[in-house]
């Protein structure tokens, strides 16, 4: 073959290859999203906006090369399971799932559809992945809290309420990560002469009577663990109101915002987790295997302290704690 003909042939191969890759990226992909939250919840809107923006930045445009079926279920176990069944039955290219309560049913329903999670606490202890470095199956993603965070919440709570002797850990007994948080807090409490009690709730109607039954002394406090049950706008407001009415200092796993009446929060940025999930979605749709993508943990935690609430509870926040706070609500 003459040199000119060889070059033209190479050019033809290259053009064909580029065209093939273009067709592959333009092929419509189908993704299911399972979110056990209220679609209109302000934080959910922030997370989904970050998620969608990241997808666009990566070249995935809904209606052009990507179809997304969203399932917003609230915290209802029955609705979550039903939505999971519907998504798996549709056999999408992959599923994006938020929170432990979404991943748990999906794991039982499919071992072949790739699943990327976000805001999942203790994914190894929950049995979703073999290890953070090597997930080993069809599931990977961005974890929320590790089990050890339970002891950290207790440590921070003791700093702002040094007199505390009894601490309720408000948790959903059906979420293994919530139980793990309780156990790490319980272990740490032994050296601080603090009694930690698990206060289990499975439905919103159980929250008020359960917390009220616990809080009867001036040295009581509460750790709220993360789950769709405690993370809705309505239930956050309920917990803030309960804590105020019962004079119960509490630490929360979601960032307090101006106008809220919570005392202190120690949490990670959820929106960053959703952006990371979009990145993994992109990599899997382009050929990566979930088993080869390590589970990634938050790199930064934020502390927010509400001084107005502290004063209402007759608490003096130590200067050392104020110095470490990322935000102080006056």
Query: How many domains make up the coordinates?
Result: 2
Judged by helices, strands and strand pairing, the structural class is alpha/beta
CATH architecture of the largest domain: 3-Layer(aba) Sandwich
Approximately how much helix is present in the residues? 40-55%
- CATH-wise, what's the superfamily of the largest domain? Response regulator
SSE topology string: HEHEHEHEEHEHEHEHEEHEHHE
Low-confidence spans: 1-24
Described by the principal axes of the CA atoms, the overall outline is elongated
Please count the helical segments: 11
Give the rounded overall mean pLDDT: 90
- Portion in strands: 15-25%
Q: What is the CA-based Rg, rounded?
A: 23 Å
Largest sheet data: 7 strands, mixed
What is CATH's topology name of the largest domain?
Rossmann fold
The spatial strand order of the largest sheet comes to 7-6-8-9-10-11-12
- The CATH top-level class label of the largest domain: Alpha Beta
| CA distance, first residue to last residue | 80 Å
Question: How many beta-strand runs?
Answer: 12
Structure description:
The strands form two sheets. The protein has a seven-stranded mixed sheet with strand order 7-6-8-9-10-11-12, sandwiched between helices. Strands 2-1-3-4-5 form a five-stranded parallel sheet, with helices on both faces. β6, α6 (176-189) and β7 form a beta-alpha-beta unit. Helix content is 43%, strand content 19%. It folds into two domains: 3-145 and 270-292, Rossmann fold, CATH 3.40.50; 149-268 and 301-329, Rossmann fold (3-Layer(aba) Sandwich). It is of the alpha/beta class and 330 residues long. It starts with a helix and ends with a strand.
